[in-house]
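seq/struct pair 1
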Amino acid sequence: MDGEKPRKRGGRPPLLPSERKTTTRTFRIRPDLDTELVAAAEAGGRSISEEIERRLDATLRSMSLYDAVFSSALGQEMAAMAQTVRGIEKVTGKSPVVDAFTAVAIRAALRRMLDDIFFRTAPISAAGMPDSERARAEQFGQLIVRAVNPFAASEAVDMDVVEELRKIDEARQSAVSKDR
């Protein structure tokens, strides 16, 4: 034993921490969740590791989007609308995508909330709105739909859209401040 050389490890030598492109994490997962994860990875043609990373990335990006949207001037009202939709879905036990009653109830509730927010609490009218402001408002609405629509073609949140939303909201708030 004294004259033996230490055995060499097989494979390539480990990289220095500064040279690594990824970090390894180890965690436990419930069997049912693991089954779903494996199925999703196979369906997407990804490894399980790639699937986990893709989903974590999407979750963290959607949190950034949530912060950007709900910290805006109308953020509290938007959060209340989302809560209303969830409440109606919970009471009916159905999605508005597959149930006409649920869809009509949600539409009616949101219309009422929008009327309360914009037309009963503030004396505003879109009729006198300058064309440039109307165009910015329409662009803002379209960007929101593109960014948060769960049925949109893109699975990832476009951070450029989030930044554009911030710029539009800042410009709107600046214009409102100048008018006062």
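seq/struct pair 2
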Amino acid sequence: MFLVNLLKKLFKNSFKLKFVKYSLIGVMNTMICGCSMFVLSIIGFNYIFYYILGYTIAIINSYLMNSFWTFDFKKKSFMHFIIFFSINIVFVIISEFLVYVLIEHVNYSEFISVLIGITSFTITMFFVNDKFIFSR
């Protein structure tokens, strides 16, 4: 509760407050996604598999946290989750393609490529979530 009240005082503009909340959840999702990817890569999985699975875990957490906290979305339903998940998967595929191109054709390291993929995905999805998925 303290964090919520502090954020409200610091960011009176609701868009800024949503962005800060989304960013905090994004950091948590990035850690969840990154840790999942790291563990799967250590185990020996291919980057394509660990990238998709890491994002899937993070997408589920993202829906739960953002619908309850960031966007305070009241119309939660299984169908809404499916729409959210589907749109996220489309953007994961686009992001995965970007990572693939950076690794296989531009010869960037896996770490830098995945970091670029995560960053582009996060920024794009904030605007998609705010304007379309969780709009009132």
